[in-house]
Amino acid sequence: MKHVGILAHSAEGSALCYLAACHEGIRRLGPHQHPDITLDVIAMGKSMAAWEQFDLPSIRATLTQTLERLDAAGCDFFICPDNTAHLALEAGNTSLPLPGLHIAEVVADYALSRKFRSLGVLGTKWTMDGSIYRDAFDRRGLKFHIPGEADRELINATIFEELCGGIFREETKADYQRIIRDLARAGCDAVVLGCTEIPLLITPEASPLPVLDSTRLLAQAAVDVALGARTQPSWRGGKIRSVDVTA
């Protein structure tokens, strides 16, 4: 089995991804069994000022330090359970120390396999306004939708002020459910939980639309790679230009 590296950025989502990978391993291999997993993190707080300035090279340099440590630990490939961080991983021309699965590619492939065609995306302001899901969807002919400006601001604020700190309020859940209902009325047939903390607030049972849980889909794809059911990824950062199921 291959050794999985988890490039963590925010704590709650990374912990969920780690547990999801362990649980997927147990489901497929039996009690107490899963691939080797190493999780490494440099506190997200060290990058928050850079995020507010949208200084992607600085953030990428910090994430690369984590990848260097995962490489030194013997990991064969990495996953990053932070959707927004992929904007930084895509920036720059130098190769990352390890190959990795790209979270938006994993989610887009899953959407295509389930015949979803028009998807709403929830996440940080950088994820919703940025290119990672737009590009992945465009390559597959999928439609991309995001909430209106006021709701994007609400989602971004609650991610950082509540979800990243392990705070999950019923009032916030109700707001997200309303926003998802609005996406359904706009013609979406599914919603991407494109921040790895959102699945801790919105479960499939609580969502007005079918959910694409980016955290758990990434964990499942990582176990696929580790067990040889999915090709070893070749992506080492930078923009993805064509559909590649190994990315």
TrEMBL record:
<keyword id="KW-0413">Isomerase</keyword>
<dbReference type="Pfam" id="PF01177">
    <property type="entry name" value="Asp_Glu_race"/>
</dbReference>
<protein>
    <submittedName>
        <fullName>Aspartate racemase</fullName>
    </submittedName>
</protein>
<dbReference type="InterPro" id="IPR004380">
    <property type="entry name" value="Asp_race"/>
</dbReference>
<comment type="similarity">
    <text>Belongs to the aspartate/glutamate racemases family.</text>
</comment>
<dbReference type="InterPro" id="IPR001920">
    <property type="entry name" value="Asp/Glu_race"/>
</dbReference>
<dbReference type="InterPro" id="IPR015942">
    <property type="entry name" value="Asp/Glu/hydantoin_racemase"/>
</dbReference>
<dbReference type="InterPro" id="IPR033134">
    <property type="entry name" value="Asp/Glu_racemase_AS_2"/>
</dbReference>
